[in-house]
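Design a sequence for this backbone.
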């Protein structure tokens, strides 16, 4: 995604790389360049924001867990899970919740 986003401002034709992309990422042929750029920019923004949010949350969860505040750690994970839009990051949060439940 980052490589595709980096190429957009340069005006590269994305048809060659889109053939190698998963079908879920393919954009209808009729979509305008502006629509493609806007979509890729939004996806990139969501991934970047989610990555930062996830990193901060997991660090805070570790601090809570180390202090014995399991309920606080669980609440942090649940709070972020409510607002997270990136499916992979949602999976990571759920896995951390499950591990927290198994641990304590």
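Sequence:
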């Amino acid at each position: 995604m980052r490589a595709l986003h980096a190429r957009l401002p340069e005006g590269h034709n994305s048809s060659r790389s889109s053939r190698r992309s998963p079908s879920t990422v393919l954009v209808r042929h009729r979509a305008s360049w502006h629509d493609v750029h806007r979509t890729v920019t939004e996806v990139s923004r969501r991934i970047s924001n989610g990555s930062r949010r996830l990193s901060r949350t997991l660090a805070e969860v570790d601090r809570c867990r180390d202090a014995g505040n399991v309920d606080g750690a669980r609440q942090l994970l649940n709070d972020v899970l409510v607002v997270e839009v990136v499916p992979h990051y949602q999976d990571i949060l759920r896995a951390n919740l499950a591990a927290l439940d198994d641990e304590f």
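Residues 66 and 73 are 10 Å apart (CA to CA).
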